[in-house]
Each structure stands twice: as structure tokens, then as C-alpha cells.
Amino acid sequence: MVNAVYHRSYEIREPIEVRITPQELLVLSFPGPDRSIRMEDLQAGRAVSRRYRNRRIGEFLKELDLTEGRSTGIPKVLRVMQANGSPQPRFESDDERSSFLIRLPVHEGFVDELGPEVTGEVTGEVTGEVTGEVQKLLNVIKGEMTRKDIQAVLGLKHEDHFREAYLRPALDRGFIEMTIPDKPRSRLQKYRLTSKGQAWLEEG
Predict the structure, then answer these.
(1) Cα angle vertex 57, ends 165, 62, to 5°?
(2) Domains defined along the chain, listed by start
(3) Which residues 6+ apart lie within 8 Å of 196 measured at CB?
């Protein structure tokens, strides 16, 4: 979270997004790492940027003892996850570096301790929730629409944010479906409401 607050662009109006599921914790911010940083180096914990965003915010976070200001944040995340015996975190961005997604997987032992019954209950609560983003998406889908068409109607510019906050949750909950499910990345791909999505709209 400190990394996201420090390095995000405050000219981009998309908020920092934090999602907690039974499988992982995700932090999404905009834009992605500076192009001078290779994603392979970032994943290995040896990336040092030649350019810094928000130096004054960094100085403030340093005064609060939340950061050291020496590019030690990512290595610390890797070190702590390893010491805890947790799976390795994953860092993702696109070719344009328009966003930065950090995935922190849940420790396998924690899932085992919960047991199948509790895990099922938690998963049900999370997947059954209809977020405000999903509600907005369901309200704008008319017939069959492409991803770009839906984004345009919602006024959203960033594809990664749209996929993580709107599209994927709606698909996972069975409220919408792909017109070409066997080719998720097809340029002809469109999305439409399912009977479950239509029923939810009618009940709402």
C-alpha cells in the first residue's frame, strides 16, 4: 500500500484498488513502474528506478517511518513473504506500463487451517457480493457489447482496472458471459447478460 501511495500518478483519477479474496490480496495502482525498470528485475527484487515520482510524498512517508526511500520496498515484500513460507508475490504490468498489479497469494497453511467448510463459507460471501462496479456494468450492457464499448459507456480509460474491478467479477459471478468463450482474447469477443444477470436486474 505504501508503494502504491508513493509511486502512483496523482494526475490519473483512477483510485488505488485493494481486493482481498480467499486466495490472494491484490493492490492495483496507476500507472505502472517506470519504463527504466525491467519486470524481471522487479520480480527478482533488484530493480532501482532512475526516475522517482512524488518525492515530497516519499519524504513524508519516510518521516512516518513507512518507507526508507532507498528502493527497499519490493525486496522487503519478497523477503517477508519468503520468511513466512508464503508463495512468491507476483508483479504485473502491461507493455505501456499503464497500471501496476501486485498479487500476494494466501499461505497454503492458512487455507488448510480454515478447513473446507469455513473456506466454502468465505468464498460464498465474497463471490456472492455484488459490488458497485458490477452493478454499474450490469446496468449498461444492452444486447451484445465489446469490452471497448462497455468501457466507453462507463467512461473508463484503463483496461486493467476495468477487467479487475468490473469485467472479471461479473464473469466470475455468472452475471455476464462471453459470446466466444473458447477464445477469451478474440478481437471479435463480446459480452452479454446471462439469465442470472437479467434476473438480478429485474429484482433490483
Answers:
(1) 110
(2) 2-115 (3.30.565.60), 131-203 (1.10.10.10)
(3) 173, 174, 175
| Single-letter amino acid code for the residue at 199 | A
User: Residue 105's beta-bridge partner residues?
Assistant: 24
Calpha distance 55→27 (Å, rounded):
21
**How far, in Å, CA of 129 to CA of 125, rounded?**
6
Rounded CA-CA distance 132/61 in Å is: 31
pLDDT tens sequence across 42-94: 888 887 666 678 888 888 888 888 887 667 778 888 888 888 888 999 988 88
**Which value, in Å, is the radius of gyration of the alpha carbons in the chain?**
19
Contact 73, 81 (CB under 8 A): no
> Model-level pTM greater than 0.70?
no
Q: At what angle do helices 147-154 and 132-140 cross, to 10 degrees?
A: 110
**Rounded Cα gap, residues 24 and 105, in angstroms:** 4
**Cα distances (angstroms) measured from residue 48 to each of 34, 87, 104:** 10, 23, 21
Q: Which residue has the cell 513524508?
A: 60
Name the residue among 104, 103, 77, 96 with its Cα closest to residue 31.
Answer: 96
Cα–Cα dist 168/160, whole Å: 10
